[in-house]
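Exam prep: given the inputs below (a chain plus pyridoxal-5'-phosphate), describe the expected output before reading on.
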Amino acid sequence: MNAKLDSTATSRPVTRQTYDEVLVPTYAPAAMVPVRASGLDLWDQSGKHYLDFTSGIAVAALGHCNPIVVEALTRQANTVWHLGNGYTNEPVLRLGIAITEATFADRAFFCNSGAEANEAALKLARKHAHNKFGAHKSRIVSCLNSFHGRTLFTVSAGGQPKYTEGFEPLPPMIDHIPYNDIEAARAAIGDDVCAVIVEPVQGEGGVMPGNPDYLQALRDLCDKTGALLIFDEVQCGMGRTGSLFAYMGYGIVPDVLTSAKALGNGFPVAAMLTTEELAHTLSVGTHGTTYGGNPLAATVALTVLETINQPAFLARVKEASLYLIDKLEELIRDYPQVYASVRGAGLLLGLVVTDAFKGRSKDIQRAVENEGLMVLIAGPDVVRLAPALVVTDAQIDEALRLMRKGLDTLLAAK
Ligand SMILES: Cc1ncc(COP(=O)(O)O)c(C=O)c1O
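Solution:
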C-alpha cells in the first residue's frame, strides 16, 4: 500500500527537525515545539513550561484558549462554518454593528490577515483618488522601518528593503520617509499622493511610538492634499495600548483603519474600517476574498471585541503597562551593560539594547527562553514584550525573574 496513504499523519511523531524537511523555510522557529497553552502558560513537546510574553506576536490578547472564545467558537462550529460571499451571515452582521459602533468607522470589510486588510486599504485609496481626482493621484507615502504585510503591494509599502529584495519589479509610486519626521512628511505629501499609511506605534520596526505632533501633522497634510490617512493598527490595535484602538488615545481620526492579530485572538480574521463615503469606492465586484467575515471568524472577533471593549478591561491594560514599565526600568538599572531604555505603549514594549549588545536581541531571546520565558524581538537591537492583555502582576514578576536568570546566564557565558 502507498506509504503516504497508509500513514496516520495525525498521530505520526513529529519534531522541530520535521520543519526543516517539509516546510518552505520562510521562518527559523525556536528549537522547542509548543503543544499546549492556556492563558499565558505554554508547554512544549517535552512537557517543559513557559510563560508566554509574546501572545503569538500580539495576537492572543485574551490569552491562549480563552474559555469565553473557545465556547463561542465551539458553538458556532456546531452551527455553520462557511457560506461564501453569495450569502451574508448573522455573526458578521453583528460584528459589523459592534465594530462600527465602537469606532469612527461606518463600514467594515472583513478579511483574513493584516496584509490583506492593508491591501484593501491601499486599493481603496488608489481607487478613491482615481475616481475623484484622476490617475495622476497615485502616490503612496509610507515610513521607513514600517511593516504592513507580505503581499507584493504591502511589502512594498513597508519600509524595510530586506523584505522586498529579489521580488522586483515592485508596484511603483510608493515613497518612504523617516518616521516621526514632520519636515520629511511635509516634503513628501504633495498633490499626487493618494494615501499615507502609518503605524501609530511601529511594531516590527523596533516598538517605536508615533509622536502625537507627527500623527497630527500627517492628518493635516492629508486633509490639505486630499490623501487618505490609513492607520495600520494590526499590531497596536484592539486594546494593546490601553485604548480600544491607538487612534483613540491620540485623538487623531484616520480615514481608514486596519485591524487583525488580536481581533481574532489566534483565529485568522482582519478588518478594514472606513467611512460611509469612502466605503462606496469598493462597489460590488471590485474587491473580495472567499473567507472574509465567515461565521467562525466573525463569531470569534465579536466575542473578542466585546470582551476587550470594556472600560474596566482597558483600564487594567493601562495599569498592567505601568507596572511592567516600572519593573523594566528596575531591570535596566540592574543590567546597564545589556539594556539602554524601554519604549512603546501599553503592553507593546521594547527593551533597547546597549551598544555592547547591538545585534544580539536574538541571543537574549534564546537565553530567556531557556529559562522558560518567551519574548519577541523587534529587529536585532530590541527585545519586544507583548504579553496577553490579561497578564497579572504576579506573571509580570515571574517574567522579570526569568528574564534576570536568562541575562545572568548570558553574561556569565560571555
Ligand atoms: C503593523 C502590522 N501590519 C501588518 C502586519 C501583517 O499582518 P499579517 O501577518 O496578519 O498579514 C503586521 C504583522 O506583523 C503588522 O505588525
